[in-house]
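so my prof wants the structure for this chain in the tokens format not the other one, which i didnt know existed until like an hour ago. anyway here's the sequence
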Amino acid sequence: MKQIILSLVFLLGVSCFAEETPDSAPEESVQEVPQEAPAATSIATPTPEVASPVAQPTASAVPEKSSVSPWAFGIHFGQLRTKNSESDPVLDGNRTSYTGGVSLEYRLTDQWFLQSELNYMSKGWSSQGTISEVNLKYFEVPLLFKMKFPWNNLAPSLMAGPWIAYLHSAEQTSSAVLHSSTPSITTDTTSTTQRIEYGLYVGAGLDLALSSQLDLGVSVRYGWGLSDLNDYEPFPGVIQEPVYNRVLQLAASLRFRL
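here's what i got, hopefully its the right format
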């Protein structure tokens, strides 16, 4: 009888031990959940990354100020008042014509600029008494050094530099009698005129800044031709008097920053 009672007590003890073993397992799993809390710290790490993009625009703003191009492209159109170097008032008559072209300007410093142009223009002169007009058409390339004096959105300037030109055509139109109804006679004088001409310009200008990329300007310049226009000898051994172009130019321009 005692053995039976002891065996029952033993079985009850084993069953109680088996029931306590599964209850301990969930307690351990519950204790492991707080260990995942360090993952929350990784959520806070993007905070410094959010601040870094905010600083990037301020850093990129610095190059934008220094990225203003020193180059400017322009178009211009103007009027010419031309004559020759002769002092005789009969032979030295003014002639009005027009010019147009394009320009490319480069900023050397805040005050000094270099400007090159490609122009098409008509020079020449007229004579009185016997009506005579000389028409010389050129492709011209000046190279001008400009000094600007910026003041608010205005920039007065002084300029000077050489030019070289290629003669496209030359004509002389004449009539024997003043106010005559006789048709005038036009002669092609290209073969007796120097093809290459060179000289010197001096002048002044004024630029108005319409925006950071667009300027409106006016300029006036005077040009001395330094090459003789005559390219023939009327008679062997006879020296032809040299003739030079004189040009007064007034032009308006529109300039775009590249």
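also thought this was worth mentioning. Residues 22-33, 36-44, 57-66 have pLDDT under 50 and may be disordered.
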